[in-house]
């Protein structure tokens, strides 16, 4: 299960672990193109934070359905259009 919220300067996606094993993960996509991924860590009483570019997020999403190897995302005219495809593996 996940939620999507649109704020004035970011889109916030929150995915919930339906098994209750792990804390929620938030993906915050800022207008400046920086993506923040964070998860609350109870033992540290704070968030673990990861920062990446939007292109890296697209790579992660595309990698779920690709075979082993090196791949490059080819974007459409709009970098946020979600129509990116993966090229053949580079050897």
> What's the total count of β strands?
7
**Overall pLDDT score:** 85
In total, the number of domains comes to 1
Helix content: 10-25%
Specify Rg, calculated over alpha carbons: 15 Å
- Give the count of helical stretches: 1
Helix-strand pattern, N to C? EEEEEHEE
Distance between the termini: 37 Å
Q: What class would the helix/strand composition place it in?
A: mainly beta
Largest sheet: number of strands, sense, barrel closure: 5 strands, antiparallel
* Portion in beta strands: 35-45%
**Which blocks of ≥5 consecutive residues have pLDDT under 50?**
79-91
Tell the overall outline.
globular
Seen as an oligomer or otherwise, the chain set is single chain
Q: How are strands sequenced across the largest beta sheet?
A: 1-2-3-4-5
3D structure, described in words:
- The protein has 91 residues and is mainly β.
- The N and C termini lie far apart (37 Å).
- The chain is globular, with a radius of gyration of 15 Å.
- It contains 1 helix and 7 strands, in the order βββββαββ.
- The chain has one domain.
- 11% of the residues lie in helices and 41% in strands.
- The C terminus is likely disordered.
- The relative contact order is 0.13.
Give the SSE layout.
Layout: E1 2-6, E2 10-15, E3 25-30, E4 34-41, E5 46-53, H1 54-63, E6 73-74, E7 85-86
Question: Summary?
Answer:
The chain has one domain.
Core attributes:
five-stranded antiparallel β-sheet; 1 helix; two-stranded antiparallel ribbon; 7 strands; disordered C terminus; 11% helix; mainly beta; globular; 91 residues
